[in-house]
Amino acid sequence: MQEVTAKIMPRDDRQFIGKVHSEVDKRTGVRLVTCEFDAAGYQPELYAELGIAMPEAIVGSVPKRQAEFLAGRYAAALALQHLAPVRNQDVQVGIGEQRNPLWPSGVVGSISHVGSVAVCAVSRRMDKDYLGIDVEVLIPTRVCREIAAIVATRQERELLSVEGLSERVALTLIFSAKESLFKALYPSVRDYFGFEVAEAVELRLADHTLVLRLVERFANKHNLPRDYQCQFTLGEHWIQSVTCGQFPHRANLKAID
């Protein structure tokens, strides 16, 4: 296992955690930590061995969910050690009533996992008001046809197809970008919203940016700006999206600290 932080984290002698990668994303400035993990090698006692608390909401879940949660929170623990507000402190990322991560004071963050990979993005709250990350495997062609109308409008799909993206890549990108936007805004609005609340209005392939625009009604209801830039990464079989930034009217928002 590769060490990514100055603080000594608990050893993973069972090899549940595989490769670990940590970096400051040059496009967004947020700390990104990626952990590969082996769900087949999961055992409940790994929580204690890795220094991660298992919340009551996770105790009764299936082993696969427990493994994903552990890997995500371990990635978060590594990421937090790079932030001044909590560096070298023994902090836990809790779980809210809506299963959202509860971050330490002074921190914004987001966690996602797919397959055998967990990713975490964190930043100081003084640098970012909102932050969401999502990673998805490419949606199978058959499934694309079934969910296309739910995930994106015809105009959105045409916007991305004009740039030469395949149906699978285009739909997965829109899906992932909107998921990252939801994670970014939920701590401020505390309101669930669907894919129809945001629309992809601009794609800039040169710098891997997708601009999402909130519908006016939702933006006005929550006193939010309408446009958000999602920075995405295209892998061979996956897409990762990060939506983050600062609100122009920070003092008027009710974001959770």
UniProtKB/TrEMBL annotation:
GO BP annotations listed: enterobactin biosynthetic process
Cofactor(s) the protein needs: Mg(2+)
Reactions catalysed: apo-[aryl-carrier protein] + CoA = holo-[aryl-carrier protein] + adenosine 3',5'-bisphosphate + H(+); apo-[peptidyl-carrier protein] + CoA = holo-[peptidyl-carrier protein] + adenosine 3',5'-bisphosphate + H(+)
Range of residues in the leader sequence: none
Gene3D superfamilies reported in the protein's UniProt record: 4'-phosphopantetheinyl transferase domain
Keywords linked to the UniProt accession: Enterobactin biosynthesis, Magnesium, Metal-binding, Transferase
Binding site for CoA: 65, 73, 112-113, 134, 179, 183
Domain 4'-phosphopantetheinyl transferase: 131-211
Domain 4'-phosphopantetheinyl transferase N-terminal: 58-123
Function: Involved in the biosynthesis of the siderophore enterobactin (enterochelin), which is a macrocyclic trimeric lactone of N-(2,3-dihydroxybenzoyl)-serine. The serine trilactone serves as a scaffolding for the three catechol functionalities that provide hexadentate coordination for the tightly ligated iron(2+) atoms.
Family: Belongs to the P-Pant transferase superfamily. EntD family.
Complexes and interactors: EntB, EntD, EntE, and EntF form a multienzyme complex called enterobactin synthase.
MF GO annotations: holo-[acyl-carrier-protein] synthase activity; magnesium ion binding
Binding site for Mg(2+): 134, 136
Pathway membership, UniProt: Siderophore biosynthesis; enterobactin biosynthesis
Gene Ontology CC annotations of this record: enterobactin synthetase complex; plasma membrane
Annotated InterPro entries: 4-PPantetheinyl_Trfase_dom (IPR008278), 4-PPantetheinyl_Trfase_dom_sf (IPR037143), 4PPT_N (IPR041354), Enbac_synth_compD-like (IPR003542)
Pfam family, one: 4PPT_N
Protein name: Enterobactin synthase component D
Keyword Magnesium in record: yes
Protein's organism: Microbulbifer pacificus
